[in-house]
Amino acid sequence: MTQMTGSHVGARLRERVRGQVWQHEDAGYDAARTVWNGAVDRRPAVVVRCADADDVRTALLLAREHGVPLAVRGGGHDWAGRAVLDGGVVLDLSAMRAVRVDAGAVVAHAQGGALVADVVDPAAVQGLGTATAVVRSVGMAGMTLAGGYGGLVGRFGLALDNLLSADVLLPDGTHVTAGPDGDPELLWALRGGGGNFGVVTAARYRLHPLGQVLGGMVLYPQEQAVDVLRGYRDVLAAAPDELTVMAGFVTGPTGTPAVFVAPTWSGDLTAGERAVAPLTRLGTPLGGGVAPLPYPELIRMFEAGSAPGRHYALGTRWLPGLTDDAIRTLADAATTSPSPSSLLALHHFHGAAARVTPDTTAFALRRDHLLAEVIASWAPDDADPTATAAAHHAWVSRVASALAPGALPGGYPNILGPDDADRTRLGFGANADRLLAAKRRYDPDGVLSAVAAIGG
Q: Model-level pTM?
């Protein structure tokens, strides 16, 4: 696409949409093209911050008419930066964040740009909640469409298991309601296939009665890491649905690596105290603790470690269990990270999420497992940014490779990068061919490519 074409599309968008439009020469353009990962530095021809679904349709059709590549920005939290692209049109949904909680129907109605916080905060006021990721600032739709691991997965399943229906604009401008009474095949594909089939302008999420949860984080010294993670493994083996436990490594209060366990108990609090107690006795704690609190407050815990504007690189493996080799790999990796801001995390998948039949949703991995996240994080103002970035990417690659023996095929699409198409497809297992058929049906021209393996 030439700059003239981009200018032409931008000019036509200014005439036709209610939302804001930015091009290279406009004040605010640099802010409009920014996403969570400060390492992503791309220059779209046009960014259009859509005011409503009509704006989305207008921008979508104009981009197609002019043959301009397209990206969709919801929460903008994808580390690989697929929400923006050089020379293309970015459909920015960040102004479409309205949420309505229907307490009687136990459903949250959310626009496509709503963040996790926009959904869980008003739901909690009504004594309700739903499965989400562990960070409040991620986009609800983008997180849900690929999976949505979090502290309620054992009791309520993945976030995508709670997606009831969605309003979708297909790449040809057709409006479709993906749902059991509308287009069930599209709903099936959206539950794990990501934003590859159309633009989700609104969605409805199942809510559940949810009072205070019992949660927090307990830190242990790095030298106790092997024993702590072995104890963690034992707790997981007997964990009921109400108990989902994250673990991993962060920088502790003394500035050195520390191993953490972060439980979420979502049932009776008295029973929860007994269930969580063993996690506070895995070693000699450095600090932290567990207490009753509202779910929206619990998921503030990792906000500081996912600050926007820092530079990030991510890697991942699905682990069928926590072997001694994996424990040693993680413990060693915590001591070799180039930055104290980096994080190693294990997300617990079990209970309700594991009882779903694999072909019920596009997300196919329905056995107990751990999602290992390797997150490198560093400041953007380093004296030698190229060398710094290379060191962090190398660390992520080394750790992910060291965890590969014994890991399950594929990986979580929300963490895999654009070069991981083979692993992404493997992750869909027996559902891959059906998902590819859905891609050909809903986006035959390959306009959208949020997940590499089915990006067309």
A: 0.95
